[in-house]
Amino acid sequence: MTTPSNDTEQNGLSRMQGGAGSRHGRIGHGQWAQGLLLLLGLLLAALLPVPALAQSSGLPPIDARAYILMNANTGEIIAAKNAYSPYPIASITKLMTLYLLFQAIQSGHLQLQQRFRPSFTALHTGGSSMFMHPGLAFSVEQMILGMTVPSGNDAAVEAAGLVAGSVPRFVQEMNRTARQLGMLSSTFYDPDGLPHPNNTASPYDIAVLSRAIMTQFPQFMSFFDHEHFTYAGITSPNPNLLVGRVPFITGMKSGYTDAAGHCLVATGSQNGVSLIAVVLGVPSFRDEGRGFWKASWQSLKLLDWGFAKTLWLPAMPELERTAAH
């Protein structure tokens, strides 16, 4: 899957030239001309842009600003485009909020069935909501589903307060944890993903975070595969349209702002192999449902291709390059 570096190509060329000289001694004018043409061709090839991983592998076109496909079992990168540059990530931010919340539950600081009443800060948080109401108690379990399904900003702010005591302290912990996980292109400004220039991450970083959740907290993965969530008499759908419709899908998280476009992290498992598809910046539509449909479709194309390549199709690079055209 990887393309040899220019250094490797040059070493191979040196060996080829040395071998020819040792076997044949002096080279005739015709052979010399052919060798010069070959050398020029190799140099030209070295100067041309190296094709993107997806372009030479048979992967269908993915309409997104950036994406990555990672094997969650091994950490191998299977396909990528602009995967190491930071972009706005909207509510994908909540994956870090959930990671820290899962840590707090696992350590015993919080329990799933604990009940709380929403804080003033959470009740006055705008954007997408799990519809917390003044005085209406909720459980930690409901708060998690309020983030994983309707992407409630109120739930994320409430989680920040319960875990760290305040939103500013929680954001500090988000950024510290990102560095610990190796998310070197990520910065967090809030726990919910509301628009801010400092809320950015790369597809690679998001895949690393998603993998950390899958491997460190497998007992909580079921929170990501709910098609609907009902709280306070209101039923909200999951914008990840793959959940409940595609049998191998296991989660994970959607996001949207004007700056970020439609974003989706989709995870799936088949035959013991788990894959993570991160798609950022799918072109936005005025119809938000249509945008999430398109983001879901791009993610499904990545996962389908990844499972085919990983599980069923033998590694045949020559045929892959032919299939890409």
Characterise the protein shown here.
It is a single chain. By secondary structure, the chain is α+β, with helices and mostly antiparallel strands. The chain folds into two domains: 42 residues; 270 residues, 3-Layer(aba) Sandwich (Beta-lactamase). It has ten helices and eleven strands. It starts with 5 loop residues before the first helix and ends with a helix. It has a five-stranded antiparallel beta sheet with strand order 2-1-11-10-9, with helices on both faces. Strands 3-6 form a two-stranded antiparallel ribbon. It is globular, with a radius of gyration of 24 Å.
Q: What's the layout of helices and strands?
A:
Elements: H1 6-24, H2 29-47, E1 66-71, E2 77-81, E3 87-88, H3 94-107, E4 115-116, H4 120-123, E5 138-139, H5 140-148, H6 153-164, H7 167-181, E6 200-201, H8 203-216, E7 228-231, E8 234-237, E9 249-257, E10 261-270, E11 273-282, H9 288-312, H10 317-323
Antiparallel strand pairs: 1-2, 1-11, 3-6, 4-5, 7-8, 9-10, 10-11
Helix pairs in contact: 3-6, 3-8, 5-6, 6-7
In short:
The chain contains ten helices and eleven strands.
Which short descriptors sum up this protein?
disordered N terminus; 11 strands; 325 residues; 5-stranded antiparallel sheet; alpha+beta; 2 domains; Beta-lactamase
Any idea of the CATH class of the largest domain? Answer: Alpha Beta
- As a percent range, the share of helical residues equals 40-55%
Number of helices: 10
- What's the number of extended β-strand segments? 11
CATH architecture of the largest domain: 3-Layer(aba) Sandwich
**SSE class:** alpha+beta
| CATH fold type of the largest domain | Beta-lactamase
